[in-house]
């Protein structure tokens, strides 16, 4: 009996390519979700290594009054009750042009946690009908279809209950947050906008 040897086929025999012959271990959407998780972690490590002063909400929060982006501020510095808030850039420059009040960072975090916990237990009820509508006219919503399937994969892979704010999860599903007087609007990666009432500081 001769030992088995592997040789490259240089055209001596016909070649065949068989695709999708076996059921995948994970879906394409789950694979994309995992890829983005690794990408986020890799970028976070690079940011820490280069000491970049970049925050999870930077460039993601917009004013519902004037449309400007929000800027991070530290208040009561050096005091026991020192805190971080986000404020509209236009309001900071000229309060007469925008009367939007600042929002504490912890309030944005709490509101996202509430959104996640509300959505995680019912995401299929929201996303499956949306997918059906989008797939009825796929030429107009290919990106939305892909992003909706991706979001469903993220929810499948993540815990159903979030105890404290998770920066990574926020980055994976949220495109933008718009601040209004009594609520925040979270625009997800697929364009879906969900509103949450937030706690106001006294």
Question: What percent of residues adopt helix (DSSP H or I)?
Answer: 25-40%
Biggest sheet descriptor:
4 strands, mixed
Q: Roughly what is the average pLDDT, rounded to an integer? A: 84
What series of H and E elements makes up the topology? HEEEHEHHHHEEE
- Judged by helices, strands and strand pairing, the structural class is alpha+beta
Shape, per Cα inertia axes:
elongated
Number of distinct beta strands: 7
User: Count of helical segments?
Assistant: 6
Please give the order of strands in the largest beta sheet: 1-5-6-7
Return Rg in Å. 23 Å
Intertermini distance: 86 Å
Low-confidence stretches: 49-53
Per DSSP, what share of the residues sits in E-state strands of 2 or more residues? 15-25%
Question: What does the model show?
Answer:
- This protein is an alpha+beta fold.
- 40% of the residues lie in helices and 17% in strands.
- The protein contains 6 helices and 7 strands, in the order H-E-E-E-H-E-H-H-H-H-E-E-E.
- The chain has helices at residues 28-49, 89-93, 105-120, 123-136, 142-157, 167-173, and strands spanning 61-63, 70-75, 83-88, 103-104, 174-179, 183-188, 193-197.
- The chain has a 4-stranded mixed sheet with strand order 1-5-6-7. It has a 3-stranded antiparallel sheet with strand order 2-3-4.
- The longest helix has 22 residues, at 28-49.
- The model is unreliable at 49-53 (pLDDT under 50).
Short description:
By secondary structure, the protein is an alpha+beta fold. It is 40% helix and 17% strand. It is built from 6 helices and 7 strands.
């Amino acid at each position: 009996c001769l030992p088995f040897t592997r040789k490259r086929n240089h055209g001596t025999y016909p070649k065949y390519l068989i695709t999708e012959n076996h059921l995948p271990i994970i879906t394409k959407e789950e694979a994309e979700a995992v890829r983005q998780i690794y990408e986020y972690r890799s970028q976070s490590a690079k940011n820490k290594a280069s000491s970049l002063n970049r925050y999870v909400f930077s460039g993601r929060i917009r004013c519902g009054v004037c449309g400007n982006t929000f800027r991070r501020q530290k208040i009561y510095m050096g005091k026991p009750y020192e805190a971080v808030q986000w404020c509209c850039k236009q309001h900071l420059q000229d309060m007469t042009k925008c009367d939007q009040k600042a929002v504490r960072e912890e309030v944005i975090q709490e509101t996202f946690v509430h959104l996640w916990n509300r959505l995680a237990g019912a995401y299929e009820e929201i996303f499956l009908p949306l997918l059906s509508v989008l797939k009825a006219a796929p030429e107009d919503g290919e990106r939305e279809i892909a992003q909706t399937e991706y979001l469903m994969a993220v929810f499948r892979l993540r815990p159903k209950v979030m105890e404290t704010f998770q920066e990574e999860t926020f980055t994976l599903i949220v495109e933008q947050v718009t601040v209004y007087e009594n609520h925040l609007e979270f625009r997800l990666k697929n364009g879906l906008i969900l509103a949450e009432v937030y706690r106001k500081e006294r």
